[in-house]
Each structure stands twice: as structure tokens, then as C-alpha cells.
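explain this:

___
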Amino acid sequence: MSYRELVNKLIESNISISTMESCTGGGVSNAITNIEGASEILRFSAVTYSNEYKIKMGVSPEVIDKYSVYSGECADEMSFNISKFSNSDLGVGVTGKLNRSDPNNPRGDDNTVFISIYDRRNNTYLKNSIVVSGESREVNKKVVLDTILEMLFNIIK
């Protein structure tokens, strides 16, 4: 499976998607927009590295305070709110730390990434957390992007 196959399946199924990404830095939306026809299904993408912009995009400050910005709960807020903001069928939220501590957000494991995909059509979430290897950011981002790809295929099949 590839992002090309994903985009073609989303187009064929008339399913729209939006992303709110943190540690992947827009990697999911980049992989989607590398494919011809992506504009038919990609509604919106936001890279929200800071707490401030996660909050501006709808993530509850209370969720960040209670669970941390690096949590499954935060990823759920990201996926839900990006879907709502863009009126898309699927919302992808991803947050976590890749090989470094964050002095602004000290809570949370340094190599854990939280992924949430909100499916507005069924009002359901598909969630995952993965521990990355501690190798380079590039290698770890690829692991996360491959995991998200697999999760998206599980939702749309």
C-alpha cells in the first residue's frame, strides 16, 4: 500500500481528509499532495507545533493541562477539530516527541507518538501510539507516516 493508492481510494470513495500535524511537520499532507488529484480529497492541513496554535485550531487547553500536549487525548482533539474546521470526512491528528525533550512541555515520553483518526461519517476514532526508535527524525517520521497510512487503509477499506 502507498499514499498513491490511498489518494486514489479516497477519490474513488469520495472521502475527504484533513490533517493537524505536529511532530510529522506536515508529512502526511505532503505525502498526499505528492499525488495527482489530491486536491479532490484534501480539504485542509495545519502544522501546529506550538500549544498556542493547537488551541487556536480547537484543542482544549484543559486537555493539554490535564493530559499533556503529548497524549492520545490531545491527538483526539486534533483529529476531531480539524475534521470539524474543514468539514472533512476524516481528520488526522498526530502529536509526540521525536528524539528530544521539550522544555515547554516536559510531560510525556520523549519517543512516543500519538495518532488519532476521526471518522466523521461514523463519529468514531481509530487511535494508536507508537514508540519510535530514537534514530534520526527522518527515519522516525517515516515510521509514523507508514503507521498512519496503514490506519487510513483500515478505515476506508
Notes: Strands lie at 17-21, 42-47, 90-96, 112-119, 124-131. The helical segments are 3-13, 27-33, 51-56, 61-67, 72-86, 137-156. The chain is about 40% helix and 20% strand. The chain has a mean pLDDT of 92.
